[in-house]
């Protein structure tokens, strides 16, 4: 039975490895299937597909989409969608703008602390990818405001420090409906430490197709709990390393935190059925 990793980030969002580098690393780890799930972006997909042809790896279209849920952010993994679907393209464009607006709001809050940071500096750090808090942290480090990413997040950029960040992201219902219309599957990302069971039930009622059971943040107890939840609601069970690059703690999970290709095939069957119904 083969191995798969369905949760990977690249330089198209907040990772530090290019899509082609990810595919090469995946081949070295004997992964058969991967999905590039950059935040609110599919910009790395074409490069990954091209590299995958060389290394004989299957790449499933994916994205980790931010949504609003219960007055806060939720992360929903989308897989197997039609990348040219007009509604999905509109979602991606809207979220790219929402990320810029969100970044400007964060910079305004930091200016109240005396930090002089400009959105163009953050854009330059992102180098064309969707901006996020890691890019803001990188600028803070480069300007000497903090000594490390860790300090930036602990002291200034965590949810606890920033509180509720205003955003124009799609609601969870809108994301789920858009992905379905594009023929894809929607999965609750890293749920174990983010949601109460009641909140998970709400996402199931909204129509998610599955739940990420395997994730580095899930210990054995949480993993078994999520497996039970998936079985109870007849949900797809997925997982991955949430790999962001060969640095810090991320590297040790790549090629280790995986799921079986059998679980991937179950998801692909469901996606194919959905697409056939849309024809």
From TrEMBL:
Task: State a single Gene Ontology molecular function.
Answer: 5'-3' RNA exonuclease activity
Offer one Pfam family short name for this entry: PHP
Q: Which residues form the Polymerase/histidinol phosphatase N-terminal domain?
A: 4-69
Q: What top-level branch of life does the organism fall under? A: Bacteria
User: How is this protein named in the record?
Assistant: PHP domain-containing protein
Q: Which organism is it from?
A: Halalkalibaculum roseum
């Amino acid at each position: 039975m083969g191995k798969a990793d369905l949760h990977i980030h690249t330089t198209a969002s907040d990772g530090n490895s290019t899509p082609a580098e990810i595919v090469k690393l995946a081949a070295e780890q004997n992964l058969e299937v991967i999905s590039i799930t950059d935040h609110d972006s599919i910009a790395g997909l074409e490069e990954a597909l091209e590299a995958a042809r060389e290394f004989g790896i299957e790449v499933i279209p994916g994205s980790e989409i931010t949504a609003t849920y219960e007055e806060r952010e939720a992360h929903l993994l989308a897989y197997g969608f039609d990348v040219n679907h007009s509604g999905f393209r509109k979602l991606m464009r809207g979220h790219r703008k929402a990320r810029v607006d969100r970044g400007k709001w964060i910079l305004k809050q930091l200016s109240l602390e005396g930090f002089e940071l400009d959105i163009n500096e953050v854009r330059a750090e992102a180098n064309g990818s969707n901006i996020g808090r890691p890019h803001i942290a990188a600028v803070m480090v480069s300007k000497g405001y903090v000594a490390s990413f860790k300090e930036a997040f602990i002291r200034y950029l965590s949810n606890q420090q920033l509180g509720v960040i205003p955003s124009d992201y799609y609601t969870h219902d809108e994301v789920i409906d858009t992905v379905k219309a594009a023929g894809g599957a929607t999965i609750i990302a890293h749920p174990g430490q983010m949601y109460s069971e009641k909140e998970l039930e709400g996402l199931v009622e909204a129509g998610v197709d599955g739940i990420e059971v395997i994730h580095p943040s899930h210990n054995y107890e949480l993993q078994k709990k999520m497996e039970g939840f998936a079985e109870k609601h007849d949900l797809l069970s997925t997982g991955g390393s949430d790999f962001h690059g060969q640095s810090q703690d991320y590297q040790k999970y790549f090629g280790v935190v995986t799921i079986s290709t059998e679980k991937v095939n179950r998801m692909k069957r469901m996606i194919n059925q959905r697409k056939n119904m849309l024809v």
